[in-house]
Amino acid sequence: MIRNSIIPAPLARLPWRVLLTITAIGCFGLVVLFSAAGGSLRPWALPQGVRLFVFLAAAIAISGVREDVWRRAAFPAYVVLVVLLFAVELLGAVRGGSQRWLDLGFIRLQPSELMKPAIVMACARFYDMLPPSETRRFGAIWPPCVLIGVPAALVMLQPDLGTALMICAGGVTVMFLAGIPLRLFVGGALALAIAAPLAFNFVLHDYQRNRVLIFMDPESDPLRTGYHITQSKIAIGSGGVFGKGFLNGTQSHLDYLPEGQTDFVFATMAEEWGLAGGVFIIAAYLMVIRWGVNVGIRAKSRFAKLTAAGLATTIFFYVAINLMMVMGLAPVVGIPLPLVSFGGSAQMTVLLCLGILMSIDRESRRKTGW
Question: Longest Cα pair distance anywhere in the chain, in angstroms?
Answer without folding.
Answer: 66
